[in-house]
Task: inverse folding
């Protein structure tokens, strides 16, 4: 009989954590036992795994005794505190927070792009930011086929990227707006918990995701730039591909959209060649038939593991430059599924 | 006493038409008499101008007898039918539809950018598309100061760009979604009246505005490319500035957002130099203070004539390249106000 694994899910009660449970239920990983861990506040809550009830436990270092795999999405400070404890006890952790992403000895992995980086792990594998994941899934097959020089991305990011409380806030604001009430009192979390002012997202656009850096870029934009380089080129400051980003929160509950402009090495590449490559690319579903109004939409991507790509067009004034539109479920491919997929690949490659 | 003008508003009962009435009330044009024109269906409806009741009349060629200025926003086919009749009777028309925009002898005018083109009119002046207007207002001062090479724009366009019925549809869908009902039955207009399939916009993103061209670009994207060239360079196919666009409808009632990437001639230009130019630019309000979370938002732009610009950032890997975020009320600067402003400038320059 093949090995079975004890798995702990850290942050099991959140928007991503509950989806990690579902994705693990549907995964190829042989699971012996599941521990659902959270803060003291959520301890005692009843959840289930494959139909069996599981009681949520408060996370302590001893929670990781005998655990083989940790899937973590409880916030950066929780990961920083507990994952070293789990590693000390022999577990391999896939961390969905930004805590370790830029550590040189922590692989930052999207399996469709850089699965081979998993072998360099020292107990922790980092899951990239949601907006980065869907972009690199769509661009890597193009890079492999034709080379990639420059990426200019504008995001249309869903509220759930800021957690369940942001989703609730969008819902409350939307109802208040429709009832003719003032939405401003509802705004307590967005654009970002970590900053001073809060603004309504319902029926609005917020060009701020995370806090701002000194150069005017938001930290989300910084992540898209440097994570993309680390994932594709194994160097967060690599110059071979130039990347810039504008990240905007939109009043959508789940699934991010991205308008991506990119240039390839070969100026003779055509849209048909790009479509041919994307049609067979891992994790990609091509939805690109404008004549029949077929293109990716968030409401159709919710609950799916795939990255949906459409609206491929040549920039007719710049040979080798193209526009495309990419949508994926930020809580699945952007978080829970990519985390579980990394764990699946660790198991399949004998790295746990 | 200075001359007073007889003004007709064609399409007076629509989302833009009602705002044309308000903008004309507040304008510097000395108005003798106002005629409110619409289809037979709306004839008889009571509206008001400067506190006086005005009955909406059905549009006929004879409606334009004695009219000096026509402000038109009743759809392209209505403009094509009636504006030549109005011109024949001696009126000067400012047309907010796309009917005449690409005619070589029709100036396409945003007064802050190319007011001088008004003098070449032959009875008709065209108002550009809403998404084009706010982009050229923000970019022209930069072009004047530093030269402009390339524009890559991704839009976040409000439902009202598709008319009052699209606004109503967004509202109905939003309420149905919050009530847990299926939104799909509500979708009868968006993404565009002129195409076969209709999709919900509420809590969703639709990367289609207007119908698709053979090259995969939507007609809205085509407009942004060619109108920008005609307005800035007086040639819809000019090569001096390269333009590409991705247009997306977002679940916002009023005010478009635009993420604009652009390159200038001088690679030494800094963000501070751009801000200095934009601070004093006509029609522009600079809202760019990330440290205090100040940036343009649709809910703050509604009802304003200005174009709001923020999130200015250098692309640190490409000298002379920048990102910015631009928001304006698509029904005012993008339509009603730019139309009335064109009429104001025609009057002020003695061109009527």
Result:
């Amino acid at each position: 009989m093949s090995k079975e694994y004890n798995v702990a899910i850290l942050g099991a009660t959140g928007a991503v954590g509950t989806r990690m449970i579902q994705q693990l239920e549907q995964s190829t990983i042989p699971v012996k036992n599941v521990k659902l861990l959270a803060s003291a506040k959520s301890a005692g809550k009843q959840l289930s795994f494959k139909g069996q009830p599981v009681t949520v436990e408060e996370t302590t270092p001893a929670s990781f005794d005998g655990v083989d795999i940790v899937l973590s999405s409880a916030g950066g400070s929780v990961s920083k505190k507990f994952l070293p404890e789990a590693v000390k006890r022999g577990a391999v952790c896939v961390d969905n927070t930004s805590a370790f992403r830029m550590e040189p000895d922590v692989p930052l992995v999207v399996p469709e792009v850089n699965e081979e980086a998993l072998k360099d792990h020292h107990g922790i594998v980092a899951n990239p930011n949601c907006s980065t994941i869907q972009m690199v899934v769509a661009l890597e097959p193009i890079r492999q086929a034709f080379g990639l020089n420059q990426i200019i991305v504008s995001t249309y990011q869903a509220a759930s990227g800021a957690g369940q409380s942001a989703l609730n806030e969008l819902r409350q604001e939307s109802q208040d707006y429709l009832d003719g009430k003032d939405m401003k009192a509802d705004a307590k979390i967005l654009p970002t918990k970590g900053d001073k002012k809060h603004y309504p997202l319902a029926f609005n656009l917020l060009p701020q995701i995370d806090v701002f850096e000194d150069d005017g870029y938001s930290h989300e934009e910084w992540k898209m730039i440097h994570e993309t380089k680390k994932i594709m080129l194994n160097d967060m400051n690599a110059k071979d591909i130039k990347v810039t980003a504008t990240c905007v929160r939109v009043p959508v509950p789940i699934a991010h959209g991205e308008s991506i402009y990119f240039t390839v090495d070969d100026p003779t590449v055509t849209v048909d060649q790009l479509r041919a490559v994307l049609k067979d690319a891992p994790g990609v579903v091509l939805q690109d038939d404008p004549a029949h109004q077929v293109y990716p939409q968030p409401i159709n991507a919710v609950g799916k593991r795939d990255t949906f790509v459409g609206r491929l067009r040549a920039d007719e004034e710049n040979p080798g430059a193209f526009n495309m539109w990419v949508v994926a479920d930020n809580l699945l491919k952007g978080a829970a599924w990519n985390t579980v997929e990394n764990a699946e690949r660790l198991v399949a490659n004998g790295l746990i």
User: Anything to note?
Assistant: The longest helix of chain A spans residues 130-146. The domain at 132-329 of chain A is CATH 3.30.360.10 (Dihydrodipicolinate Reductase; domain 2). The two ends of chain A are 17 Å apart (CA to CA).
